[in-house]
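Exercise (ungraded).
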Amino acid sequence: MKERLEKMRGEFTAQLNGAASPEEAEKVRVAFLGKKGALTEVLKGMKDLTPDERREVGALSNTLKDEFEKLIAARMATLGRVEIEKQLAAEWQDISWPSGLKRGAAHPVAVIRRRVKDIFISMGFEVLDGPEMEEEEFNFNKLNIPPDHPARDSQDTFWLTDGKLLRTHTSPVQVHGMLSHTPPFKFIAPGKVYRNEAVDASHEHTFHQIEGMVVDKNISVAHLIYSMKTLLTGIFEKEVEVRLRPGFFPFVEPGFELDIKCLICGGKGCSVCKQGGWLELMPCGMVHPNVLRHGGIDPEEFSGFAFGLGLERLVMMKYGIDDIRLFHGADLRFFTQF
Amino acid sequence: MLLSLSWIQEYVDLTGFSPEEIVKRLALSTAEIEAAHWVGRHFEQVKAARIEKIENHPNSDKLHLATIFDGKNTATVVCGAPNIAEGQVVPYASLGTVLPGDFEIKPAKIRGVESRGMLCSVKELGLGEDHSGILQLDKKMEPGTPLSTLYGGADFVIEIENKTVNHRPDLWGHYGYARELRTIFNRPWKKKLDFTGITPDKKEETLAIEFTTDKALHYIGVKMSGVKVGPSPRWLVERLAAVGSRSINNIVDITNFVMLETGHPLHAFDRKNIAGSTIIVRNAKAGEKFTTLDGFERTLIDRDIVIADKDKAVALGGVMGGLHSEVEPGTTELIIESALFDPATIRRTANRLDLRTDAAQRFEKAQWVENSWLAVQRCIELIKELVPGAQVTSEVAHRDASQNYGFKGTIRLSADRIRAMLGVRRDDLPDARIESILTLLEFGVTRTGDDMVLAVPPHRRSKDVSLAADIVEEIGRIYGYDNIMPRPPLFPMLPPPRNRALEKEEKIRDLLVREYTGYEILTYSFLNETEKNAFPAPDETLVMVQGAKESPWLRYTMVPGMLRGLAVNHRQFESFTLFEFGRVFRRGGESRRLAVLLRGESDIFRAAKRIGESLMREFGVPQFRFERPTPDNPFFAAQTLHPGRGALLTAMKKKVGILGELHPALLAQWDIKGRAGYIEIDLDLLCDLPEKSEKYKPLPKFPATFFELTVLAPERTEADTLRKVVEKTVNRDTFAGCEFVSSYKGQGVPEGQVSLSLRVTLAAPDRTLTTDEMKGTQESLIAAFDKQGWKLKG
């Protein structure tokens, strides 16, 4: 019996080493340790032995069983690894091959507009909308620009056959906004505007602005400077130095041109700021009392400030774009860059 | 407009302030500066020098060595000019001189010989284009004399951006800037110009002024005799030249000088060409012809103003004089005009005739009566100074119709109000400083308790200043906006009201970019003839731009823009999605639209439909349908969309959009091969729809069960038709849904038929359905299909 078991160990080792795959190793396991396996059979035949023999053979076969199981597990691990190695050897990927991911992009003007809008919303501003086809009354008269006012010269207008016009600025939304709100209020109004002029690299007849207006008791120039500085710091994501110069716009008094210290040279003077160190960025001012009145607001009780921001200008500064015509050009070679 | 700083300094002493400082403060307090630079600085450095000796250059045939004496030293200069000779007096630029073009003279070795300085040509001195030889000076000129004695000294020229002083009639002459700088730097007057009155020397003639138009506001006419027309003296030529004005003759130059000094335009008529003694200011007759002094015949309209004698027009009022009455070399008697007209009228005439003269530019800004008196006084003074013997030979005739012109009242406000509007503290801007600024600006200041009552000076009240806010600006700009400390406004801490329409637009933008790889473009709102004709619409509903030639119509559909986008890109890119948010216009209104263009998709209609559904989901529209359009739908009638591959999108019974494949004929017209998909959505309509309420539905307690059926039906049988049969047949209580699995034509499907597979799901809220129940439903459905002629497939 003992000899048989010793022999079995030899056979088992030979067969297991001969197994070339986990499946073959499993077959070996079944052949020796399965229900009808060789070793199982030995254990089954123990009832015919004497108690002494039974003890001896029992101990030996249990040792063998443990030994076989360990050997099988080890063999299985080795064979499994071989399988993986085979798979690995067969598999490869060209990691430089494009993923095929397609992308799209919002218009750069829309991207900047959202950024500016979000900053204002975070500061508690409401966002208003207004018509592009506007009444002369709102685009000019109520903004303190009567007929024959020289300010109409600089805003060459697309007059329409039905007597209306295409708004030349987003400022008419100031009047709509005042008429639909009760102070205190603060809102912005992004929108498309039109000027009847020839198109070239730096002039467009169609462009975008964001109008802003704040009305409350005791609103001052100091508040305007603070708000504009905060906004611009938000847009450019760095501390921005601003300065006001007198600027004449009929719907504000006093009116300003707001300059920012050149972000390229930090004010030393460079080609972007034409050596001046400052960049003219946005017209703004304290709302003219006549405009407040046209909006149904008593200028003795309330004051406010308003501003207009040209979006194309900001986008061009941000990306170094030197031709404004690209914005309406629909050319994907441009738009796929954003 | 150009300003000469040395001219300004005739009136106010700005010693101690650098030109750079002056420009900076002017920019921050008054007007935008277009440019500012020195001129003629080199004339103070370049001196007359005598050529003592000329030798040949040892290493060159063309060059010479000139030894010159500049009054102090002798120096040797290498010179290549052919016209030099010993004994000549020539301009000599010594080492360190900077010539125009930033050209600094440095010691240099020319062909091995050192040259200490340079002899100058006309071109090198910036006096002209002549570069053929060295400029020859008068031989009597003392060596060492700077050229500034000939060509004037250095001046600093400032260019004002005109449009930034449109509202300031007082800033169209040098004297106005002197007043401004005097205030900014708090300096005394050096020479103050005041109107003191004009006394005639003789009364040879009595002039009369007559207004027959209400657009004439004020007119002064005065006659001068004993005039001799001739060249202007050097100082006058130089003053004019410094600001880019050419000298013509002494009389014309004086009127120009006075305009550039005071800002008030004058005109001098040759007396002999004015018939009679009455000057009439009237409206032109419609169609009246008039030749202006530039030689062009102008056709006038009845809104133009002319100055006329008893026979004819002699000047186009406020714009330009007439050729016929121009001052000529033989003129001996003048009528000097100093007038004032309705600014808007002048502006209209100048714009219509494209004749934006210096005079028109100033009159349209609203000049003031007092200045017209000052200007005529200055003109007479200067003529008498330059033409000895010239005399005023008439009483000064004038007519005044300016009683309703400009602001006549006073402005009352407190210093506190000014500080509150600016947002500055009393410590920083005390009452005394406010009063001093106003006084320097020539406002009359009277205190009444806390308030100031301000009399506005004439040069500000014709147009610019009439309100308290105007005073706030005066104080703010002179005090310096830079000196105002920024302060945060106080506001209640409330979330702002939301603009859901714009929020949705942003969400759709994200959706189209991220899910559908769309690129957002912008196209113009204008349509040309071809584009308009491609999309017929009743003309009376369209809006046009007045006077536009190329693209007069406002778009009423987004298709042309998207087609432009397709045309620009289809040769470069195989597959892409474009979209645009924009507005379309009709008489009476506009609406917000979204357009999407699809290119390169394999199943274009389905791709378009998928986007349509996505949009409905994004908008939370509870019910929407894709409907086959009736042939009279404009998009289909106009052959915009493929008749078999287009749909109307309706939501809550409103037509919110169209989608499908673009009509092949339309693409052919735009010379585009292949197919493209298109979606156009009315965002205003969509935003008005109620949003789906988001409420939880309990999970079913009993499991659902399903079966699949495949039927053969005639071609072009729609899924919706099957669905309707299913919905009608299956017991409503157990029907839980119907999905379409596949639609197939080809092998195994007879010609003219289509194989459609669908899956029907059944469930009951109160029990698990039995196999028999399911089979029963299946059988009744097969029977219902059979009745439609749709046979169960194998």
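Further reading is listed at the end of the chapter. For now, observe: Chain A touches chain B through 77 residues (CB under 8 Å). Chain A has a mean pLDDT of 91.
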